[in-house]
Amino acid sequence: MAIIKWTPMLDPFEEMDTMLNHFSENRAIMFAPSMDIYQTEKDVVAEVSLPGVDPKNIEVAITNDVLTIIGKSEKKSEVDDKNYYRKEVRCGSFQRSVALPATVNCDQAKAEYKDGILKVVIPKVESVKLKTIKVDIK
């Protein structure tokens, strides 16, 4: 009968964390920024959390009532001599598309970036009223 050395089970999250760190170190990093969308009487408003992102690297598009935010976060300088234990400050490309809750007029949309928050205000299209047509009988 062989004696097997008992080793306590490793934390399962530690293995997953190691795997994700390996993945992120060896490939381009993509992340999805947090986004809040709400409606006012006249507008649909999206607020996107993008701290540290240069506004010049942000693109906003609206197509068929879908809002898309595309951009990239760059690290200005990488310090190789730091002995990181954990590195969670994100950088890389991002893209986020969300269907809007109302029909909007994308030609009048406005976007501003302040204090790490991108705010996109898109006017709603006035609802189309039903028009009845009289049927001619011949």
Automatic annotation (TrEMBL):
This is Molecular chaperone. Residues 30-138 form the CS domain. PANTHER family: HEAT-SHOCK PROTEIN 20 FAMILY MEMBER. Pfam families: HSP20. Belongs to the small heat shock protein (HSP20) family. InterPro entries: A-crystallin/Hsp20_dom (IPR002068), CS_dom (IPR007052), HSP20-like_chaperone (IPR008978), Small_HSP (IPR031107). The lineage of its organism: Bacteria, Candidatus Komeiliibacteriota. It comes from the Bacteria. Transmembrane segments: none annotated. Residues 26-138 form the SHSP domain. It comes from Candidatus Komeilibacteria bacterium CG_4_10_14_0_8_um_filter_37_78.
